[in-house]
Specification:
By secondary structure, this protein is α+β, with helices and mostly antiparallel strands. It folds into 3 domains: 58 residues, Arc Repressor Mutant, subunit A (Orthogonal Bundle), CATH 1.10.10.10; 206 residues, 2-Layer Sandwich (BirA Bifunctional Protein, domain 2), CATH 3.30.930.10; 43 residues, SH3 type barrels (Roll). Helices cover 30% and strands 27% of the residues. It contains 9 helices and 14 strands. The protein has a 7-stranded mixed sheet, sandwiched between helices. The protein is elongated, with a radius of gyration of 22 Å.
Length: 324
């Protein structure tokens, strides 16, 4: 009910809309409209009301609902169905549960807060309320499961491009981290359910530290993590950034899914690589390898050069700089 009232107020732009008109349009009593208006006010919407003139939406809170993101989206299906939570354990966990029950391709699970956010290797992910973008995208691509890891790179490239829209230049630490001023700004976690030759679904979780202050990070990560607010000195619009990420993601994703073309994604990952040309440590299948990152292959694999000069392509692994 309140969502329908909100839609009418948004469509009214800067005009007052009478409670009578709203009640007639929705087929409810004026008392029900009044209750919905108060609920919206409780959520942070500033609604002006004048006797005999009605109601006018003055400003909206920085919530990540479809009603606040919609105007910034130019996607066909990614993000057109947004399932929004105030608080949740993990958007990836919820997205996987919904995907297993048939949630449609492109559905987004997004929350203002995660209390059990996860990164790779089940590491905890700091996800304070109203301070970041904590979302997961449900995908159902018709690709071989062996190529699923490329979805992570598409996500990283999309975040990198979205941040450029805000004049923020970041680097991509293959395969799943976004780095700003040598600190982690964003992490990506891709999970899959598949048969031998068929993907049931992929869930790609994206967590971006947007308006977190330095003191809000746990002590164990405040020297290695950062946020847009810390680096930029001001708050950023989570709504506009969320939409920008989804807009860029769909374009890059469709290039890969429909045209079998990963070139745009790889170009972005190469040009903005945090690792290429640097000495690294690679943890893979219980082994620690010291090498140099020399390239990202056309298929999205990390190309490393061993101490003996041998060149190898790596499909997965935990990578750190040699000095870290």
């Amino acid at each position: 009910m309140k969502d329908k009232v909100l839609t009418i107020l948004k469509e009214g732009k800067d005009s007052f809309i009478s409670g009578e008109k709203i009640s007639e349009e929705l087929g409810v009593t004026r008392a029900a409209v009044w209750k919905s208006i108060n609920k919206l006010k409780d959520e942070g919407y500033f609604i002006d009301s004048i006797s005999k003139n009605g109601y006018k939406l003055v400003s909206s809170p920085d919530l990540l609902t479809i009603y606040e993101i919609y105007d910034f989206l130019n996607t066909k299906y990614i993000g057109r169905n947004i399932i929004h939570f105030d608080t949740i354990d993990s958007t990836n966990t919820k997205a996987k549960a919904l995907a297993s029950k048939g949630a449609e391709d492109g559905t987004i699970v997004i929350s203002e807060e995660q209390i059990s956010g996860r990164g790779r290797l089940d590491r905890n992910w700091c996800s304070p309320k109203f301070k970041g973008i904590w979302m997961s995208v449900i995908l159902r691509p018709n690709i071989d499961p062996i190529n699923a890891s490329t979805i992570t790179l598409i996500g990283a490239a999309a975040v990198n491009k979205a941040l450029k829209d805000f004049n923020i230049k970041t680097q991509i630490k293959w395969p799943n981290d976004i780095i700003l001023n040598n600190k982690k700004l964003c992490g990506i976690l891709t999970e899959m359910s598949s048969e031998l030759n068929q993907i049931n679904y992929i869930v790609i979780g994206i967590g971006v530290n947007v308006n977190i202050s330095h003191e809000e990070f746990p002590k164990n990560i405040n020297e290695i993590a950062t946020s847009l607010k810390i680096e930029g000195g001001h708050n950023f619009s989570r709504q506009k950034l969320t939409a920008a990420i989804l807009n860029h993601f769909e374009k890059l994703y469709e290039e890969f899914i429909l045209d079998n073309n990963l070139s745009s994604t790889i170009d972005i990952c190469r040009k903005n690589s945090y690792l290429i040309g640097k000495e690294i440590k690679l943890y893979n299948r219980g082994q620690l390898i010291a090498a140099k990152a020399v390239d990202i292959s056309d298929e999205g694999l990390l190309v490393i050069e061993h101490k003996d000069g041998k060149i190898e392509k790596v499909i997965s692994g935990e990578v750190t700089l040699h000095k870290e």
